[in-house]
Amino acid sequence: MSKFITILEGLDRRWIFLAMAISVAGPILFIGITGKTLPETPTPTARAVYRAIEALSPGTPVLISFDFDPASGGELTPMATSLVHQCAARGLRMVFIALWPLGPQLIDETIKRVILADYPKLKEGVDYVNLGFQSGNESVMKVMLTDFAKAFPITKNGVAVGDVVALKGIQRVDNFPLLITISAGYPGAKEWIQYVISSSGGKIKMVTGCTGVQTPGLYPYYPVQLNGLLGAIKGAAEYESLVNSSLAPKDTSAAIPAKYLEAQRRMGPQLGAHLLMIALIILGNIAFFAQRNSKVRATS
Amino acid sequence: MKRLVPMWIAIIAGFVMLLSTFFPITESLGETVGEIFNVVAAIAFILGAGSLAKVNLAKISRRDQGWGYAAITLICFTITLVVGLGKIGVPQSTQFPLLGWSGEKDAEGSIFGWIYEFALVPITSTMFALLAFYVASAAFRAFRAKNLEAILLLSTAFIVLLGRTFAGVVLTGWLPDWASGLRLENLSVYIMQVFNTAGNRAIIIGIALGVTATSLRILLGVDRSWMGSGD
Amino acid sequence: MKPSKTWVIVVAVIVVLVGIRMTIGQGMARAYVERIDQSVEVKANDIHGASTEKWTEWHPVAPKKFEAAQKADPSQTKFAFSWANTIGLWLAAFFTLAIFSFLYRDNPGYRLAEAVIIGVSAAYWGVIGFWDTLVPKLFGALTHTLVHDQVLPSLPAPTTFQVVAMCFALALGLMLLMRLAPKGGWISLWPISFIIGVTAGLKIVSHVESDLVAQSIATFKPLVQPIVSSESAQSGWMLWPTIWASLANILLVVGVLCCLTYFFFSVEHKGVAGRAARVGIMYLMITFGAAFGFTVMGRVALLAARIEFLFDDWLWLIDPAGKRIVEVASAIGSMLC
Question: What is the interface pTM, i.e. ipTM, of the complex?
Answer without folding.
Answer: 0.92
